[in-house]
Amino acid sequence: MTFTERLSDSALTIAELGEQGLLRLLKSYCPVDVVGDDAALLTPTPGQQWVVTTDVLVDGVHFSDRTTPPHSAGWRAVAANLSDLAAMGATGLGITVGLSLPPDCSVDWVKQLYQGMAACLAPYGIPIVGGDVCRAEQRAIAITALGQVEPQQAWRRDTAQVGDAIVVTGSHGGSRAGLALLLGEQLDLVQGAERLSQSFQDELILKHQYPRPRLDWVEGLRNFVTGGLGDRRVTAMDSSDGLADAICQICHSSGVGAKISPDVLPVPQAFKFMSHQALNWVLYGGEDFELVLCLEPKLAAQICTAASLGAVIIGEITNSDVVLSQRDGTQLRLNLESGFQHFS
Amino acid sequence: MTFTERLSDSALTIAELGEQGLLRLLKSYCPVDVVGDDAALLTPTPGQQWVVTTDVLVDGVHFSDRTTPPHSAGWRAVAANLSDLAAMGATGLGITVGLSLPPDCSVDWVKQLYQGMAACLAPYGIPIVGGDVCRAEQRAIAITALGQVEPQQAWRRDTAQVGDAIVVTGSHGGSRAGLALLLGEQLDLVQGAERLSQSFQDELILKHQYPRPRLDWVEGLRNFVTGGLGDRRVTAMDSSDGLADAICQICHSSGVGAKISPDVLPVPQAFKFMSHQALNWVLYGGEDFELVLCLEPKLAAQICTAASLGAVIIGEITNSDVVLSQRDGTQLRLNLESGFQHFS
Fold this sequence. Notes:
10 helices, 2 domains
């Protein structure tokens, strides 16, 4: 039986395939001229700084067979890392994949995982340049993404200034709502006896299973900023741990506060009613992988009127406290504690 | 109670410390100007190629409380990665650490793990530049090491040529013998009623718990090669998966064979008798993290007479087959199958 024929058996396990066979399979997802030695060699553009980020995703914590088929788990693992590159204003050069697998894991699961990773990487031409596989009791994926950025041009989170406009690159809450649907949780997104249509349900599930890392923003915003006049600072963070978390982290790092208008927060179309649950998911849901930017107000306004980008100003940077300023005049203070606490 | 006072409680668990507290602790092992944003920024020497390698180590597979205290587990995790950089002829720039931890893991264990990593990194001035922590059922450490090398100067494994001398940078088998001692396995390293002395036992255990990555060879050999005349090819691989594995991989990649003389294989001082067990550990034991080099014979001879390096010629590259040529004229064929098979 040929190697390819063996792999077509969907019941084949990792233990049956063996370590050498598994490595051969995984290498088929990598460029041949980069892998196969003790380490991978990459040739960056001369003079650029390196950007490095690592994320670990564990079965039952970040993904599960119930909510994320392997193709989606692979996509999400890559998206989480590329999102961090985007939040630094970097372009991607490659990723490494450290894979922990139980011996009874099916080879088919691994193939679909890698196909999902490859699908997420493809639009940006980013290769898988190396990795490692190891036996473990629980499936886990540790990805390190490598990127590059012009020296002194990285988008940091500690450079926001009072008066900056706060911009988001897209809607929030959709990923958490999609997870709720997959888990069969009660949804409170429509009023009265109305039901959430199937297409809206699909939209939310897609947002959970296939979030889009905003690397498309790196070049777009860079061109905008370079072309503009005056203050070209870009303060940025991704909203992987939630919108409120991103705003709080930027404010904490920059020593400033923020005032957010809940009425203008972009939400998925499926959110037809801003219930308490919906607002909670928008602020604390996490894993939408949008960018949160702080920019000089005129620059922010220009960017948000550029229709193709789909960005929205949601508030401004203030002297202190991170608050949600509601229409009735009350103010809700945002904090980090409601965000993800993976160990609690 | 201050943060430092809380950390001094050796019974404190990760769940009690919380994710933010854990991140604060781990950041204390990183340079302040590099970590704290979505990704780390590194400034390499202009014009160098990047070298990237990843290793995953899992509790019960690569380390355990029985054989490797957390300080040693951290050291070994780093050593495995730095060894891959050395095998490419690269110098190290930084590592990222993806940590999977059960909530009931003690903070003390994590502190000692990081102290072990820091101790292994210190001689080379390599910083921890980022990482991630995640809840999991099993402890695991996924490290990615980043290095740099002059373009076209990387030491590959596919460039060995017939007639090359095969050089090893140090002894093999010690790590496996140390593991045997820690596991209480029967040792067959001395003859008759002789006992292995305590100091020899300690030497072997040290080789298992604190293997030295051969980054010291990168500059040393580079200087030698640059200064020499004629053929300056360096073919290299580290022996992390065993000496036989390294030789077989080089031969497979280069399309050549090898003939090894067992009598000249350097072994730890504690190996007082070349039993079948001892030879097996020298060839297949693994995790000694020495370099296996193929060099033009005159260059190899020069290097091996340089006393400070401690290298030994163990054989030569031939047309085909990897064989151990024994004193009585018999030949033992080496193969990959006896090496590590993590999934079997």
